[in-house]
């Protein structure tokens, strides 16, 4: 009888297994990828003519890849306290990100009520959702580390 992936993951977690993180050098790689992609977006904004939308989408996803590498990279001094802070930061980022995503339609209605023309906000886009979760995580994780 085959076990489901979820059941295998739960057994792995019960045995004390933790999510495998990348080496700490990937944090610098993630920062470099994100910075280069942001500079590419700025360049595309001013000089991209025909393929501006394609490069904007490509570079936005590249930024997300860089942020994700930063998030899953190990700290230089990874110990039990850092792992605990990592889990707390993920929990805080999830709660804050979900709360903001749930409140944004109401904020959008409120703001549109004060202006004569309707504002089109793309808050539910994939980039906004993913980048906000990753930024919230990084913000909380760094804040928690400084409190040690």
What layout of secondary structure does this protein have?
Blueprint: H1 5-14, H2 25-47, H3 52-71, H4 80-114, H5 126-146
Summarize the structure.
With 148 residues, the protein is an all-alpha fold. It has helices at residues 5-14, 25-47, 52-71, 80-114, 126-146.
Descriptive keywords:
148 residues, mainly alpha, 0% strand, globular
What's the total helix number?
5
Number of strands: 0
**Main sheet properties:** none
Radius of gyration from the alpha-carbon trace, in angstroms? 19 Å
How many structural domains are formed by the residues? 2
What is the overall shape?
A: globular
Q: Give the class from helix and strand content and strand pairing.
A: mainly alpha
What does this structure look like?
The protein is mainly alpha-helical and 148 residues long. The chain folds into 2 domains: 21-74; 77-148. It has 5 helices and no strands. The termini are far apart. The model has no long low-confidence stretch (mean pLDDT 84).
């Amino acid at each position: 009888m085959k076990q489901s992936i979820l059941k295998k993951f739960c057994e792995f977690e019960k045995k004390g297994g933790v999510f495998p993180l990348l080496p700490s050098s990937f944090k610098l790689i993630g920062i470099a990828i994100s910075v280069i992609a942001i500079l590419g977006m700025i360049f595309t904004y001013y000089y991209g003519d025909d393929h501006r939308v394609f490069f904007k989408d490509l570079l936005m996803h590249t930024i997300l890849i860089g942020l994700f590498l930063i998030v899953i990279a190990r700290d230089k001094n990874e110990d039990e306290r850092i792992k605990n802070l990592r889990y707390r930061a993920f929990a805080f980022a999830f709660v804050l990100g979900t709360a903001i995503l749930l409140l944004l339609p109401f904020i959008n209605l409120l703001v549109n009520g004060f202006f004569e023309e309707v504002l089109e906000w793309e808050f539910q886009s994939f980039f906004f959702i993913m980048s906000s979760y990753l930024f919230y995580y990084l913000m909380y994780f760094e804040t928690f580390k400084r409190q040690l």
